């Protein structure tokens, strides 16, 4: 099975996982519209692939007040979008036991799936909480719209070698985790497999981690059945 979507909105596609997946989806035949903060990288993406296969929109998702206008403008300009890939995110350490050096201005929620949604990471409390929240949201959203034509796919990466870890030092941070090319290959195969939950790698022994993921999904589905039975 190939990638079935023909026009993809890649939110957060100017670096790291988003940029790598955007390149791969263009190579597989989709037109990809990349959303990001840095105009020079958007321009480079379009130049690399050509305007018939790629486009770019400059927008910062932290601009909450501008999101409605962004959505309206984007859907009007690209009415044929059939896939939205939500990938934007940042990772900053937040040690709550060290309030003097803790910047509450960067303690906030972001939206990008990861294995940290299942096993939180010490030193990344806000980041870990956001991933747990996103995973819960995805489970509920998928259940709520399961009878619609919309498919919700969750991609759960391990640590991947990208600039998201530059706070460790660029050289050290970009050697931390799975090589981006290897990740992109595995991720793409997972996406085209038809699965709605793609877990890549594991935190700790794979059997233990995957068992936690599977049992949590089963427990959620059992809860959903109870709720539906109550309201039916």
From TrEMBL:
Keyword Ion transport part of the UniProt annotation: no
Presence of the UniProt keyword Transmembrane in the record: no
Molecular function, one GO term: oxidoreductase activity
Record keywords: Oxidoreductase
Family: Belongs to the short-chain dehydrogenases/reductases (SDR) family.
Protein's UniProt name: Oxidoreductase
